[in-house]
Amino acid sequence: MITIAIGKGRIQETALPLLARAGICLNDDAVNSRRLALMDQTGQYRFIFVKPADVPVYVEHGIADCGIVGRDVLLESEADVLLPLDLGISRCRIVVAAADREVMTKVQGMIRVATKYAQIARAHFGSRGIPVEIIQLSGSVELAPALGLADVIVDLVETGITLKENGLTVVEEIGESTGRLVVNRASYQLKTDEVGRLVRALELVV
Ligand code: PRP
User: Fold this and answer.
1) 61 C-alpha vs ligand 1 centroid, how far in Å?
2) DSSP states of 151-191
3) Among 4, 7, 115, 199, which is most exposed with the fewest C-beta within 10 angstroms?
């Protein structure tokens, strides 16, 4: 049996249909329940549903053999995990956004950046030699510019609706994020057949 950690929320919504296409099915009633650990219908896979940011933690520590999580989360994490497959799900952009497209040239002094992605933001502005103050938030970051907490945000954009409805526009593109399959180093060696079977089954439907 192998254990797969899945990020709750958006990634889970796209990962479960992909797994089903690969022949790995969960019982609908179980998925809709509040149980956080479930077996698939064959009993070969155990799924644990955790906060996306915790997926690399569970996989690095070997509690889960594999995980499904966005590249955005992996860029923020320092976990040492293997990355065998881009699943192409939950595609979104990582952007700098603001109310005023010219904000970067208008701000005097340090630019205040509100984000859930402190590492990504620091690396992005650092590589361009722009001094910034990072304001770490846990969500709803689109509120920060309107409320005067920050000049810009670094966040994910999928449909663009959240930005638009909060009066923000994309100032710069940082990168793209898609869901990835990650594997624990030891599981990759010790459970070669099981992990290999999972990777091949997913490769066929990606
Ligand atoms: C994500 C992201 C944006 C939003 C983008 O937030 O941080 O806020 O989705 O989606 P859109 O472009 O389709 O509107 P999420 O819903 O995960 O919640 P959060 O505010 O807690 O980060």
Assistant:
1) 28
2) SEEEEEESSSHHHHHTT-EEEEEEEEE-EEEEE-HHHHHHT
3) 199
Radius of gyration of the chain from Cα atoms?
Answer: 19
Ramachandran assignment for 201, one of left (phi > 0), alpha (psi -120 to 50 degrees), beta (any other): alpha
Under CATH, which number does the domain 2-90+178-203 receive? 3.40.190.10
Residue 65 to residue 46: CA distance in whole angstroms: 10
pTM of the model: 0.93
- Measured CA distances, 129 to 109, 120, 132 (Å): 13, 14, 9
- For the chain, what is the mean pLDDT? 96
Q: Which of 14, 158, 164 to mutate to test the pocket of ligand 1 (most atoms within 8 A of CB)?
A: 158
Determine the average pLDDT of the residues in 62-68: 98
What are the distances in angstroms from CA 41 to CA 26, 46, 59, 193, 205? 6, 10, 22, 19, 19
Report pLDDT for 20.
Answer: 97
Q: Which residues form the pocket of ligand 1, taking CB atoms under 6 Å from any ligand atom?
A: 10, 116, 139-140, 142, 155-162
Tell whether domain 92-176 is in CATH 3.40.190.10. Answer: yes
Are 52 and 69 within 8 A, CB to CB?
Answer: yes
